[in-house]
Amino acid sequence: MSNPVTIKDVRVILTQPENSRLVIVKVITSEPGLHGVGCATFTQRIFAVAAAIERHLKPFLLGRDVDRIEEIWNMSMVHGYWRNGPVLNNAISGVDQALWDIKGKRAGMSVCDLLGGKSREAAHVYEHADGRDKQEVADSARSFIEQGYRYVRVQMGGYGGQGSPMVKPKKAPTGAYYNPRDYCRRMLDMIAYVREQVGAEIELLHDIHERLAPIHAVEFAKDVEQFKLFFLEDALAPEDIHWFRAIRAQCATPLAMGELFNNPQEWQLLIQERLIDFIRMHISQMGGITPARNVAIFADMYGARTAWHGPGDTSPVGHAANLQLDLWHPNFGVQEWRSPSDLIYEIFPGMPVVEDGYLYPNDQPGLGIDINEELAAKYPCRDIVEDWTQTRLPDGSPARP
Ligand code: MG
Q1: Class of domain 7-109
Q2: In which order are the strands placed within the sheet that holds 35-39?
Q3: Fold of 114-367
């Protein structure tokens, strides 16, 4: 037996080429030239994640056998005793994805092949249409359809806060205000209009972003049923998941849920009771490919499909990991996607490409992606206090973003 390849160094790369601040982990091995990359992007708390990796995970990881992904994941999750938080999960994900990348490179196989091989050649993706009014949303959707997309998410005014009439109390603090009741009326009207404009063949999606009171989410899911969404996302907050039973009992609007979950066990009730149709896991938020694989296999047995979270604050490395899981999973649904700029393709060589609405892999070993560190260093992270997450109801009270 030859000596195991071990973890020689764990490095954190922070970069902000565009809006989102990205956290990439690079695991360097004892084998010269062999390294792996992983996504640890919790964009709102990047420095906490970096510290968790550099000060807590790295000392534990140095010298360990790179092949023991399963053991390393489980021990990383418990050896700090307190567990299941977004900072630590993202930190663990960066290492986990990098170890899958390394294992693939050593085997000369893609991560998809390590998981069991391809179920498909490419993954359906959906893009994000938005606008200030329904006409702009329809125009935005049409521009994606003309580029070959067959799945389009339709939002109006971001997550629906802009443009609603509301009376605020005197001295109301600043914030991203929205009016939930007006949201319901305007979104239904917009979705009806876009459906009429684009026809029945285009799959439309909508994300409520947990902005409604539970009973209004039930009402909205019923009202929108006639427009045949591909799915309605985050109708409820993680704290309100028992209300999914009420939605399920009253309509057949397909439901997607879970980007804010922290723990694989949070999927159990929803999948087992067949209360949702799509698992919207943010892979790094769950701790990486290892737990995503487990939940995906569990979901498959109950007929739930995957729709991994893939917005701008999933790093390109995270998107590459999403795609490897998409290609493999027998019950894949759709992949969220935001078209990256040329700069992103330059910083992250191997970033997957979209053609005719399909996301294609490059079939390189591992995740098939890397980071140009010198170029990434030219775009350092800026200190940001997020505005869009400072969400308020019309009377000024804080609300879920
Ligand atoms: Mg969402």
Answers
A1: alpha beta
A2: 7-15, 22-29, 35-39
A3: TIM Barrel (3.20.20)
**CA distances (Å), origin 313, targets 91, 142, 282, 316:** 15, 25, 10, 9
Q: Which amino acid does the sequence have at 374?
A: E
Contact (Cβ atoms closer than 8 angstroms) between residue 191 and residue 206: yes
Beta strands of 281-373 (E only): which ranges? 305-306, 335-336, 353-355, 358-360
Q: Counting Cβ atoms within 10 Å, is residue 342 exposed (0-12), middle (13-18) or buried (19+)?
A: exposed
Q: What is the pLDDT of residue 51?
A: 98
Q: What type of residue is 202?
A: I
3 C-alpha to ligand 1 centroid (Å)? 45
**343 membership: H or E segment, kind and range:** helix 342-347
CA distance 109 to 114: 7
The pair of three-digit structure tokens given for residue 296, joined into one six-digit string: 């995906």
Please state at what angle helix 86-107 crosses helix 289-301, rounded to 10 degrees. 90
Taking the centre of ligand 1 as the mean of its atom positions, its distance from the CA of residue 374, in whole angstroms, is 32
* 8 Å CB contact between 234 and 209: yes
| Global confidence as pTM | 0.97
Tell me how far apart the terminal alpha carbons of the chain are, to the nearest angstrom: 54
Name the residues annotated as catalytic. Answer: 159, 209
Domain spans, the chain: 7-109, 114-367
Contact of 53 with 40, CB cutoff 8 Å: yes
CA of 210 to the centre of ligand 1 (A): 9
Asked if the model's pLDDT at residue 272 lies above 80, the reply is yes
Phi-psi region of 338 (alpha: psi -120 to 50; beta: other; left: phi over 0): beta
pLDDT tens-digit profile of 9-36?
999 999 999 999 999 999 999 999 999 9
Cβ within 8 Å of residue 97, ≥6 positions away: 25, 36, 37, 38, 39, 283, 284, 288, 289, 317, 318, 321, 367
The pLDDT tens digits of the residues spanning 282-311 come to 999 999 999 999 999 999 999 999 999 999
* Burial (0-12, 13-18, 19+ Cβ within 10 Å), 183: buried
